[in-house]
Structures are given as structure tokens and as C-alpha cells.
Amino acid sequence: MNKNKYPKLVVDLKKLRHNIDHVLIKCQDQGIEVAGVIKGCTGLPECANQFALAGCRYIATSRLEQIEEARNFGVQSDFMMIRIPMLSEAADVVRLAEVSLNSEMKVLEALNHQAGLQDRRHKVILMVDLGDLREGYWDKEELLQAALRVENELYNLELAGIGTNLGCYGAIAATPEKLNELVECVEMIEEKIGRELEFVSGGSTTSYPRVLEGNMPRRINQLRIGEAIILAKDLQDLWGFDMSDMHQDVFTLQAEVIEVKEKPSYPVGQIEFDAFGNHPAFEDQGVHKRAIIGLGKVDFAFADMLLPRDEDIKILGASSDHTILDVQNCKHDYKVGDVVEFDLCYATIVYATNSQNVDVVYI
Ligand SMILES: *Cc1c(COP(=O)(O)O)cnc(C)c1O
Question: Which segment of the chain is annotated as a signal peptide (predicted)?
Fold first, then answer.
């Protein structure tokens, strides 16, 4: 196979390690452990390994396949399953992960049963839904009863803590007040079981602003962080935090130019439907120099979310396997065979790392 094959995703492991170390230190200073979340880059084992080498307490992901791959690669760490498990995967959750997030008694019973069969003790963190309306107990009494049941009856499980997730579905902000609701829940449970819980898991990247601002409620002692480490973009672009001490170019997507021509900017003929059944609109800007690269929606899903490093490039659109660039105003004279580089965001990196067509190389 051709070694110099495009598209290519270049991963700078030193920059990744810098970002991991940086977030770990900031969190440690406030008594917070970091579970390093690797699902954003589809669990690339070399990346997972950097989290382990940096000393993350757990490596976390939403997919068991990624945990298995990391283990097979030789990543030395404990692992956390952060998507509440399917009933059908209970055996593998116990086999592959030391701890999992949970919100259903039927699954907890299955985990307990499997842990017994495998002669293991599996830690569980009960999830509390504080209003984002994805996973977690909504009813506080149900939460308490679940905690008591795990504590007193499910002997192969260890009630390790409670957790929450914010800003994923309902776009709810992880304010100090919201996170204090989680602290109230943990105190309610601790009072009834008569001991302190190990983890109060306060969320993901969306909770990291509390660390940056120094207003995290004191009982929160764990965050599960992916995006703020691997991309470090959302908190800057969406929330206005200064992330300039982080590398935002750990990942570079490279694609090869396969056609360069001057063409009209307005399609010629009767406009009906594009490759995905949309009825597109165009602006006539006259004849422009355009380049096509060998990369398409199959590889990144959202053309408007690709970020060309050459700021004079405009992305016109894409179909499954072609992406069309307006290079009219570029200082560089693009030619067939040139390589164009892009920064990625969370939405595009998950696709790029899942695409079989994108070769991953490490520097
Ligand atoms: C994805 C996920 C995270 C990490 O999210 P980031 O935005 O990458 O920090 C943490 N917890 C849960 C439950 C998740 O699903």
C-alpha cells in the first residue's frame, strides 16, 4: 500500500501530552481527579496511552471496543465506562472496566451477577440528572433507593459515588448552583449509608470552567474530561475562556488536491437536488478558482465545520467523497497534488477518526 496516502490525520502526541498535563495540574490543585475521556478521537490507543502515562486515575470512554483496544495495545490504566451500559454488555463491562456510570437497577443487578461470575468487584457511580435530560436518576427517592440497594444487597458491586452530566443534550450550564445540587444528593446518600462516597463526579469539559474560575463546589472530586484536553476549543470559542496555554492543533487533517479549475460559482442548468437530497441555494459570484480535495462527508460529516489552516480558503461544500474549495483569494497557488490542512472540532474529529479512509499517523 502507498505509504504517502491521503487523507491523513496527523496526531502530535507531545502536544496532546502537554494538554493532558496542563488540565491534570489545574484539577489536582483543586483536589479533583481526572478521568481522561478518549471517545472524541475514537479511543486511538496511542492517545489513550498518553493519558495513562500522564497519570490519569481512569481512562474513560463510551464504547467497550475502545477499552478493549487500549488494553490490547498495552495501556496501563484502570478504565471507566461512561455510557450507561446496555443490559446485553454487562459481562463485558465487568471484564473490561473497573468502574461504570449507571442509572438502571436492572443493569446494576446484571453487573452484580456478572461480577460474581467473574469473581471481581466492580465499582459503580450512580448518575443524577440535574436537568440536562440525558442519563441519570431524576427522582431523588429512586436515586436513594438504588444507592441503598447497591450498598446493602449487591455485594459484588461497590457504590463508589454519584455523578452527573451537563451540557450534552439540554445544553444546561454546569453552574456552581447546579453542581451544589449534586453535592446535596451525595450528602443525602452518605447520611443514609453512614459512610463517605469515594467519587463525586461533576461532569465533563462543560464543568471545567468551574476549575478555571475556582468556584467548583468543594465536594466535587472528579471530572471526566475529553474535549478540553484533545481539542481545547469549545471553552474558548463558545465560552470565551482563554485557552492559549493549550495546544489547539493536536490533530491535523490533511487532504490532497485532485482538481483545480476556474468555474462559475453558480451551477449551470435546472437546480434540483444534491447528493443528500437537499435543494441547495447558490450565490453567483462569477468565475472563481476552485479546488477539489479527495475527502468527503463520509470522512467528516459536516463540511461547514472543517477549519482550513489557510484562512483564505472557503469551503463551498461537499458530497460523500469530494470537498469543493474556493481558492480564488488564496496567496498560495494551489495545484493538483498539493496537500491542504484542516483543524478539527469535536463534530468533525469523531467522524475523521472513525473513517476507514483516513490514515492516522503520529508525530
Ligand atoms: C462524553 C462524555 C464525557 C466527556 O465529554 P467531553 O466533552 O469530551 O469532555 C464525560 N462524561 C460522559 C458521561 C460523557 O458521555
Answer: none
Residue ranges of domains in the chain? 31-230, 251-267+283-362
CA of 149 to the centre of ligand 1 (A): 27
Task: Give the closest residue (by CA) to ligand 1 atom 14.
Answer: 82
* 295 close to ligand 1 (CB < 6 Angstrom): no
Q: Is 220 in the pocket of ligand 1 (CB under 6 A)?
A: no
pLDDT band (50, 70, 90) for residue 1: low
CA distance 222 to 237: 24
CATH topology of domain 251-267+283-362: Lyase, Ornithine Decarboxylase; Chain A, domain 1 (2.40.37)
Separation of 224 CA from ligand 1 center, angstroms?
A: 6
Whether 73 and 362 have beta carbons less than 8 Å apart is answered as: no
220, 169 Cβ separation under 8 angstroms = no
Query: pLDDT digits over 188-234, tens only?
Result: 999 999 999 999 999 999 999 999 999 999 999 999 999 999 999 99
- CB of 165 shorter than 6 A to ligand 1: yes
Strand partners, 162: 126, 200
Calculate the alpha carbon distances from 120 to 93, 147, 157, 198 in Å. 11, 19, 9, 18
What is the mean predicted confidence (pLDDT) over 295-324?
96
Letter string b/e over residues 21-56, b meaning 16 or more CB atoms within 10 A of that residue's CB: ebbbebbeeeebbbbbbbbbbbbbbebbbbbbebeb
Q: Are strands 314-318 and 78-81 parallel, antiparallel or unpaired?
A: unpaired
Is residue 215 within 8 Å of 176, Cβ to Cβ?
yes
Q: What's the CA gap between 286 and 292, in Å, rounded?
A: 18
Ligand 1 centre and the CA of 209: distance in Å?
A: 14
Backbone angles phi, psi at 166, to 5 degrees: -130, 155
Residues belonging to the active site = 39
**Topology of domain 31-230, CATH:** TIM Barrel (3.20.20)
CA 65 / ligand 1 centre spacing (Å): 17
Which mutation among 59, 79, 82 tests ligand 1's pocket best, with the greatest number of atoms within 8 A of CB? 82
CB of residue 227 inside a 6 A radius of ligand 1: yes
